[in-house]
Amino acid sequence: AAKDGGRNTFRTFTKDMHDASARRLAIQTRLAGAHSRGDISLMYQPLIDAKTKRIIGAEALMRWTDAELGSIGPDEFIPVAESTGLIIELGGWALDEACRHAREWRDVIPNFHMAVNLSPVQLIGSDVASSVKSALLKYGLEPKALEIEITEGLLIKDPLEAEVTLNELAEIGVSISIDDFGTGYSSLSYLHRFPFTTLKIDRMFVMDLPHNEGSRSLVTAVLALAQRSNLKVIAEGVEDQEQAQWLTEQGCDILQGYLFSKPLLLDAFSALLDNRDTTDDGKTASSKGQP
Ligand code: C2E
Ligand code: MG
Ligand code: MG
Ligand code: MG
């Protein structure tokens, strides 16, 4: 019986492997034509000024809905797009689209800034600095209205290349943030080597605030370090009032999370800006929309 069990386990294992690679292949195949079919879009999640609780920006997040596969999350399709190189096209489009709306929304909120995620593949495989420059120029957008988010991965894999490109971006004057801070393996020395302006504390550390002592001391240390290094801090994944209050008291600059709003479709985000209550003292954003 033990032997049979073992064989069944093996069969299940190989079947799972087969299913996983079949899905990956299906994703790869469908993704190749997704952009031209108009199936790729951006959603916008508000960034909230911790002190005033007003919207001061948005993070653009990519979405894909396929006619056959349904809706696929970026955590699943971005890695595929990176491995095929398609991310260069998709990411270039996202940059352009996000800048276009940033220009519009800056008329509503003067210091509005748009955060765009950039894949490490874009940073080394394409001339990102020129793409950024032309997008800013095309829409007449001030550099400080744009924030480029990158994760730590590339800094470790190819620090020399990363340094060159990030310095080019810094020279343009756009903000550069280190995304998902705390989840990678980069040492704190990276913060000084690269021209970061902003640090985004990963949701993982925000989740258990303020009750978990480990999270609390980590976030406190990060905030102290950021203050000394003149970095702006954004907390991701803020889901309840207690977290928001604690983070604000500790000096975190910007809050992002479901407490304020999930990522919103273009029209919903525009409506939010148009209807926002300028005299409010509490919540600025609604919780409409889908993740
Ligand atoms: P990220 O850049 O760290 O984005 C934040 C993620 O956290 C988003 O997931 C957002 O929807 C989610 N989130 C925000 N607030 C909350 C909250 O309060 N609770 C919870 N549970 N989640 C929250 P999303 O949109 O699924 O994106 C996942 C990741 O995919 C992003 O993580 C980013 O690494 C990548 N990604 C998304 N769009 C793009 C893109 O245009 N280009 C590239 N290269 N990567 C992208
Ligand atoms: Mg991000
Ligand atoms: Mg993040
Ligand atoms: Mg993330």
From TrEMBL:
Q: Which residues of the full protein are shown?
A: 654 to 944 of 949
Q: Which GO terms describe its cellular component?
A: membrane
Molecular function terms in GO for this entry? ATP binding; kinase activity
- Name any Gene Ontology BP term: phosphorelay signal transduction system
Name it.
Uncharacterized protein
Native source organism of the sequence: Magnetovibrio blakemorei
Cellular localisation: Membrane
Domain EAL: residue ranges: 24-277
The UniProt keywords, alphabetically, are:
ATP-binding, Kinase, Membrane, Nucleotide-binding, Phosphoprotein, Transferase, Transmembrane, Transmembrane helix, Two-component regulatory system
Please indicate which superkingdom the organism of origin belongs to: Bacteria
